[in-house]
TrEMBL record:
GO terms for biological process: carbohydrate metabolic process. Keywords: Copper, Electron transport, Metal-binding, Signal, Transport. One of its GO terms (molecular function) is electron transfer activity. Pfam families: Copper-bind. Residues 1-32 form the signal peptide. Residues 59-137 form the Blue (type 1) copper domain. This is Copper binding plastocyanin/azurin family protein. It comes from Actinoplanes xinjiangensis. The lineage of its organism: Bacteria, Bacillati, Actinomycetota, Actinomycetes, Micromonosporales.
């Protein structure tokens, strides 16, 4: 006997497959993400459809303004989440413009994460401002938050033996909410009017008091009003003693006690009445009273009066005290070195050389105010020597005198110098003159004419290559001085002088045998 097994409908087959999978221990498919859909049409005063509630968590937003949702005019609309109006969640930023003619044909999606509370949404296109609504988000499970917050209050402050608060009682309010979260906390003192609670409330009026308090969550649930009662009595005995204020003036002073350039006054105050110092003030030379925050620096030349006083937290002000002092201009610091000059005197020949003796007179003055302390000079390669009288140089040859001066402030003038040549008197100062035609040093012919420099002395005579020199360097410096003087006198060009000096440098003169 043949039996026909009926074929299962496709939907029934799927159910059977799912049942078999469950019986086999297979995990069911994951739940789809939450999707919320808004639509719009031709109306510019309201969305066509919009969700009213949702569950916190990741959510797919669908926003459609298309022909399919009834838009026959091509009118664009936006779906914008409000992120500024007080009382709403501001953690989702969404601003989507949709039109039947855009690239998505008016249908757009976005993924956001919603948190418990309320969101406000609206269309931001001008003329659409009435397209607005609210979305309430619960913490999950599909049940809206219907539980009001829990709110408590505590009273603190110094108390007497009967429990009354001395001078002041401070009320601190705290609220918690396990659902959508606390949105506002309010309080009122002695049934006056409800106010937003932002910080502990201090009640200082003497007498019996009652402070009420309540809280509202983001789902709009408001707790029943709670209340705390207490009594405030006068505090400690009133402070009627003024502070004590003192001033101390400091600075550099001259022999007469005047302050040089600046005087600095430091003010201090103490209060024994118990309330403590509230402020210190000062008045300079009859001016306005000024709050004291740092030492008072006075630099105006002349006599001054500095009045000062102090006030405590109970309002007691001390008697005025006064400091008087005089400021004088400080001496101007001398930073200018002396001015120093030198003059040469003596009988000279037609070449400008000094016959027998040249006298150097050094003069120094100081405009900085401290005065000249020392004047020094240095003859040729000698040591620096204190200048006390004009310096007479009688040694024949080229010489250089360097000079400088220092004032009492320690400023030293830049070194200066004067160069000159001393020759013997008479028509033939060099009787055994070297009359070779050219200047020759240690056998090297410079090919420069060995001219008579005056008084019967040639260039070779002045160079005196066969004289005794302690070192080769001393000989070269001697040649430099001789040729330098001859250049100044117009007997040599600068180039000729350089050739002679190089010949001296290449020689062996002055070196030990």
């Amino acid at each position: 006997m043949n039996r026909t097994i009926p074929r299962l409908h496709a939907g029934a087959a799927l159910i059977v497959a799912l049942l078999l999978a469950v019986l086999a221990g297979a995990a069911p498919p994951a739940a789809a993400a939450q999707t919320l859909t808004w639509t719009a049409g031709d109306d510019i005063t309201a969305y066509r459809s919009a969700p009213a509630t949702a569950v916190a968590g990741e959510t797919t937003i669908v926003w459609e303004n298309s022909a399919a949702t009834g838009n026959t005019t091509g009118m664009p609309h936006t779906l914008t989440f409000d992120t500024s109006t007080e009382g709403y969640n501001h953690d989702v930023t969404l601003n989507i413009l949709a039109s039947p003619f855009d690239t998505n044909n008016g249908r757009h999606t976005a993924t956001v994460t919603l948190t418990p509370g309320k969101y406000r949404y609206l269309c931001t296109i001008p003329g659409h401002s009435t397209m607005v609504g609210e979305l309430t988000v619960t913490s999950g499970g599909g049940d809206p938050d219907t539980t009001a917050p829990t709110v408590t209050a505590q009273v603190s402050g110094s108390r007497d033996a009967q429990g009354a608060y001395l001078g002041s009682a401070t009320v601190t309010v705290a609220a918690t909410d396990t659902g959508s979260g606390v949105r506002t906390v309010e309080y009122q003192v002695d049934d006056t009017s409800w106010q937003a609670y932002a910080a502990p409330v201090a009640v200082t009026a003497v007498g019996d008091h009652s402070v009420q308090y309540r809280a509202t969550d983001n789902a709009g649930n408001t707790s029943a009003a709670g209340s705390v009662s207490f009594r405030v009595v006068p505090g400690q005995p009133q402070d009627t003693t003024a502070p004590v204020v003192t001033g101390q003036t400091a600075g550099n002073r001259d022999a007469a006690g005047n302050y040089l350039g600046t005087a600095t006054t430091t003010l201090t105050a103490t209060d024994t009445g118990g309330s403590g110092v509230a402020r210190i003030e000062y008045q300079l030379d009859g001016g306005a009273w000024t709050a004291y925050t740092a030492p008072v620096v006075v630099s105006t030349v002349g006599a001054h009066m500095l009045h000062h006083r102090a006030t405590d937290n109970a309002g007691n002000t001390s008697a005025e005290q006064m400091a008087h002092f005089t400021i004088v201009a400080p001496p101007v610091e001398d930073t200018t070195p002396p001015q120093v000059t030198a003059a040469l005197t003596g009988e000279r020949n037609v070449n400008g050389d000094y016959l027998g003796t040249a006298t150097v007179t050094v003069t120094a003055t100081d405009s900085g105010g401290s005065g000249v302390k020392t004047v020094e000079y240095r003859l040729d390669e000698g040591a620096w020597t204190a200048y006390t009288a004009p310096v007479a140089v009688a040694v024949t040859g080229a010489h250089t005198v360097r000079y400088r001066a220092t004032d009492n402030a320690g400023n030293t003038a830049a070194e200066k110098s004067v160069a000159f040549t001393v020759v013997d008197r008479g028509s033939d100062a060099c009787p055994d003159s070297d009359t070779r035609d050219t200047v020759v040093i240690d056998g090297h012919d410079t090919r420069i004419r060995n001219a008579d420099t005056g008084d019967g002395c040639t260039i070779n005579d002045l160079i005196a290559e066969r004289a005794d020199y302690p070192t080769h360097a001393a000989f070269v410096r001697h040649v430099e001085r001789v040729t330098g003087a001859l250049v100044t006198a117009g007997r040599l060009t600068q180039r000729q002088a350089g050739t002679i000096v190089r010949a001296a440098a290449a020689s062996d003169r002055g070196e030990p045998a």
